[in-house]
Design brief:
about 220 residues, alpha/beta, Rossmann fold, 7-stranded mixed sheet, 7 helices, about 20% strand, binds S-adenosyl-L-homocysteine, tRNA (guanine(46)-N7)-methyltransferase activity, tRNA processing, methyltransferase
Length: about 220
């Protein structure tokens, strides 16, 4: 996601440690204590400006949400949204989503959202796609047994690649939408990119993919 560089973005995040958790590895295995409840935890990797994760947190107060984004200026824009409308069940992390086992213990996370992830269309960049098998292996570790990834994109190439990648990993493709906005799916919360691409007439694809029960491997 391209945004204008905010020179004071890092200071903005540091000024709100109650929302942007500065040393997430300290909470590894203890996130429910941070939230002060035993509700399930859902994370979004690459939350961008945070429209989806704030919308979800508002709509589902019984779930704890953590939005993850590696670009500091982008996190600061998401932070603006949370400051404008505080949400007790939402925290933000400014970290790289490839190191999630540093921040979350085995099976600590209930569900993962990927929305409009960078497509990296060149074959030589396949390893950077968030649905490449090395990322799935990290996701599987931090997710509960039978945990799920819910993925939306407008990019047909990345979508088809991801369906194949999930399936080759041994995941079950529980539900697949080839045109989400023309379907009867209820409760969809649009991301920034989803609004932008769908207003240009692009179709939105969605899949719910489930890991096998790792305790039975
Ligand atoms: N989900 C948002 C943004 C999509 S753009 C939306 O749908 O509008 C993809 C975002 O993922 C970018 O902001 C990029 O910085 C972030 N991203 C890509 N790889 C990441 C990683 N490994 N860890 C954290 N964020 C990542």
């Amino acid at each position: 996601m391209r945004v204008r560089n905010r020179p004071n973005a890092a200071e903005m995040l540091a000024a709100h440690p109650e929302i942007v958790i500065s040393e997430p590895s300290k909470w590894r295995g203890h996130w429910q204590e941070l939230f002060g409840n035993d509700h399930p935890i859902h994370i979004e990797i690459g939350m961008g400006k945070g429209q989806f994760i704030t919308g979800m947190a508002k709509a589902h107060p019984e779930i704890n949400y953590i939005g993850i984004e590696m670009q500091v200026s982008v996190v600061s824009i998401a932070l603006d949204k949370v400051l404008a409308e505080p949400l007790p069940n939402l925290r933000l992390l400014h970290v790289d989503g490839s190191a999630l086992t540093d921040y979350f213990a085995e099976s600590e996370i209930d569900q993962i959202y990927l929305n409009f992830s960078d497509p990296w269309p060149k074959k030589k960049h396949e390893k950077r796609r968030l649905t490449y098998h090395t990322f799935l292996a990290v996701d599987e570790q931090i997710l509960r047994p039978n945990g799920e990834i819910h993925f939306k994109t407008d990019n047909q190439g990345l979508f088809e690649y991801s369906l194949a990648s999930f399936s080759q990993y041994g995941m079950c493709l529980k539900k697949v939408w080839l045109d989400l906005h023309q379907s009867d799916y209820e409760g969809n919360i649009m991301t920034e990119y989803e609004e932008k691409f769908s207003s240009k007439g692009q179709r939105i694809y969605r899949v719910e993919a489930q890991f096998p029960d790792k305790t039975k491997k």
